[in-house]
Known about the structure:
The chain is mainly alpha-helical and 159 residues long. 68% of the residues lie in helices and 0% in strands. The protein has one domain (4-122). Helix 1 (4-28) runs antiparallel to helix 4, helix 2 crosses helix 3 (63-89) and helix 3 packs antiparallel against helix 4.
Amino acid sequence: MKKFSTYLLVMFMIVFWIIRILITVEAEFGKNFMGITPINRIFEIVILFATLLCVILIVKRKIVGSLLYLTLHAIYFGGDITNKISIITRGDTLTFYQNIELIFSMLGIILPLAVLIDLLLDENRKNNPRDKKTDWFYKNEQFDRKIDERADKNNYRTM
Length: 159
């Protein structure tokens, strides 16, 4: 993770994940967290565990992690968003708690999209990967040997 935007997105992912854990735990105790209940408790728990794997893959700059994160959240939150929008288009009004659920569902779609866009726009991800074992030698000018007229012309580096 080289970019500041990636650090911020991962922090938002973790905060959103913790809030979803609190919502799920409160629902298991028969309460609701700020009026929000899980859409499907079993699938919510599966998403919570899969998000851990996705966060690790996203930190390692893998597109697969971002695509998995987006797919799981789009499946889970997409149906809720379409249900709430269909209620609005019929002319009915949403309650306060339904509006909060709609906002959380929209965050559940916007955050994975932002992570995917961040990974796709990072040109250094594939073009310039870092290898800490050799970068200290090949990317450090202070370790270059000074060549003068007496020095032999052999290449001390392989590249």
